[in-house]
Every structure is written in structure tokens, then in C-alpha cells.
Amino acid sequence: MLRAGLAGALMAVAGVPPEGRAASPAQDPYAGLPPPSDPDFARAVLERVDDQYRGRKSHARLSMKVHTAHYDRSLVMEAWSLGKDYSLVRILEPKKERGNATLKAGDDLFTYLAKSGRTIKITGGMMGASWMGSHFTNDDLVRESRLSEDFDIANGGLRLFEGQRVHLFRLTAKPDAAVVWQFIDVMVREQDLQPVVEIFYDEDAQEVRRMWFSDYRTLGGRTLPTVIVMRPTDKPEEYTRVEYLDLDFSPDIDASFFSLARLRTL
């Protein structure tokens, strides 16, 4: 989850957990997990958090609001995903941008501009640029890390955070992991193990941004945070807010759906 960027939150939409694993037990959120005192508890919780947004396939309608010191931007989008390798996001509103789209296929990222009919492959020099004017970058879309595999995990125990009891996990990047962040602090609610916030630190251990989760509701038969807000630490008044409006976990799609030709025909 959001593993470590937008790929988990947005491009992967919100998928179905792997066969045999219940991501959100209806009665006991701790069912099937080691006890909190077990050294494996933290990793097991993060695997569950990872799987909450990692799907076999999914289709969603969502909104995104961007607020900066210089502009405000609001979008309604439609998104499809297949596993972690294929994603397609298409703008529905505003009307003047309808049809603009982003395609992720493996490590490749493409942008389609409907008005001109141009397809642009995002190259290395463009990876740091803002994605659709938001606080996410093109690089966020391509990089795909799994918290429970790419980081060493320390269980910080229970604490009170913003008026609620949470489990705190400190993640430290493994030396050979292809990740941007040196540390990530992950907090999940004690009551149901739903994510609350992820705090990202750079290689100098300086906080860079926070990703907040809220509005826990049931969509498509699953309970999950339907609102995700990214705030840069150096500009706390700015934010990008993503809200899931509809979710379908069984769209009739396969890998052939995620093609350059599809960008032009949606």
C-alpha cells in the first residue's frame, strides 16, 4: 500500500486479496495473524495492508482534487488494473480533458492526449514530473515496491496517534531494494488494522511527505479507506485527495486490454 507510492493507491486501484486470504475479516481483524507479541506480527499485518490494494483485476471510478499555492484542479477518472503490471487511467471530467489517459504496462508508462491524438512515452528525464498536476510523480506510477518484502520491519508497538490507538511499524529499506525511500513509518488502527498514515523519509532521514487514509466504507463488498490524501511536508497547505466512488473487482479484462490502441479508442 500503497506500497510506496501511487501505484498502490491509484494505478492498482483496489483489488481482491490472493486466494485463501481474508483481507478484512468481518468479526476479528486479528484472525489468522500471529499475536502482536510475535516477531512475525508486523510483517503479517503489512502483507495484509499490501494486499488490500493489490488486485488480480479491478475497475473503478474515482475523483482527484489537487490544491497548490498556484492552482486548484479537480478530475473524475476511470481506472482499470490487472495485477501490479497493468494499469490504465482515463479522465472523464472536466470535459475539455476527457479521454486523456495514462497507461502502465510493466516498466513502461505512456500518456495519451485526446485533443491532439498524441501518445507520449514517459522517459527517464520526465519521471520526476508531476502526474496530472498532482503531488504524485510519473516515477510513483512506475515504481512498484511491496512493503513486507522490500523493507526490514521493526514493530514500534501500540501508541496514541491523533486520538486513536495505532500499531506503529518502522520500515527500513533493504540494501538491494529498488525503492526511493530510506524509511517509512506505517500506522494502522488497533481496532481493525486499517491503515491510518504512511510517512516517507528520504536517504537523509528527512520527512518528505505523508499519505493519509480515511472514510472507511464498504465498496464492492469490501471495507477499506475510500479517501487517500497526499501532503508534502515542506508545503503542508498543499494536497492531492483521491476518493474511490465505485469499485468492481471482476471486470471482463485481460492483458490485451492494456494496449496503446486502447488508449485511442476508450
Would you summarize the structure shown here?
This protein is mostly beta strands. Helices cover 12% and strands 43% of the residues.
Structure explained in plain terms:
By secondary structure, the chain is mainly beta. The protein has a single domain, classed as outer membrane lipoprotein receptor (LolB), chain A (Clam), CATH 2.50.20.10. Helices cover 12% and strands 43% of the residues. It is built from 5 helices and 13 strands. Strands 6-5-4-3-2-1-13-12-11-10-9-8-7 form a 13-stranded antiparallel beta sheet. The radius of gyration is 18 Å and the shape is globular. The two termini are 28 Å apart.
Topology:
Layout: H1 6-11, H2 41-52, E1 57-67, E2 72-82, E3 86-93, E4 101-105, E5 108-113, E6 118-121, H3 138-142, H4 147-150, E7 151-161, E8 164-173, E9 183-189, E10 195-201, E11 207-219, E12 222-232, E13 239-248, H5 260-265
Antiparallel strand pairs: 1-2, 1-13, 2-3, 3-4, 4-5, 5-6, 7-8, 8-9, 9-10, 10-11, 11-12, 12-13
Give short descriptive properties of this protein.
single chain; mainly beta; outer membrane lipoprotein receptor (LolB), chain A; 13-stranded antiparallel β-sheet; 5 helices; disordered N terminus
Structural class: mainly beta
CATH second-level architecture: Clam
What strand line-up does the widest sheet have? 6-5-4-3-2-1-13-12-11-10-9-8-7
**Overall pLDDT confidence:** 85
| N/C terminus separation | 28 Å
Poorly predicted residue ranges: 1-7, 11-25
Helix count from the secondary structure assignment: 5
Beta percentage is: 35-45%
- In CATH, what is the class? Mainly Beta
